[in-house]
Amino acid sequence: MNKKDSLGEAGTNQALRDLETIKVFLQKGRQVLEEKGIHLMLWGLLIPVGTLVFYAMQKTEYAQSVISIVFWPVLVSLGGIASAIIGIQSGKGSGSGNDFERLSTSLWIGHLVAIGVLFVTFYSRGGIYTPFFLSSVSVVIGLVFWVYGSLLDVSSFRFLGIPWWICAACIVRFDIATASLALAGTTFISSFIPGLILFLRFRRGRS
Predict the structure, then answer these.
(1) Predicted structure pTM score
(2) Could you give the percent of the chain with pLDDT greater than 70?
(3) How many domains does the chain have?
(4) How far apart are CA 119 and CA 126, in angstroms?
(5) The domain containing residue 122 runs over which residues?
């Protein structure tokens, strides 16, 4: 075997190893996706319930109070803490810690930080809790679903970003109450229901 053939075989072997690495990465990533079902369920319920509570609060004397201003930051922070605790516990139980788990965590933390930045930006401009703010949030969430599904090459998850973007395009024309309810409905449909499907699939896989 001459040097040229040897280099060609080495290159082929390296390509095969790279493909195997990608395959393992995607398999682990899809396992992590199924484990994320409970997180999607959590947010898919937390946001709609929070919306109803916040909407009811606007009909009371608390509408212009500090409680009303900090309601969503506190609720989202508590949701983030709960999601982190669930993630740590499920990680210990499944032993599925891997590079994609870290990537996944970074992605979801990044989107929460982005929403936090939007909140601070809109609040500093005096335009918090407006249809445009909710529309911006919907765009960010849709982007996360699209990127996450694209990384895993899972079309069904990637296309979950589309309802968020449709919602974003529509609610900017609504009043704040209607926009809030529309976003809550989108959250339930595009987060809780897919999360429930993933959770049940994960449970069946472990049984």
Answers:
(1) 0.76
(2) 73
(3) 1
(4) 10
(5) 3-206
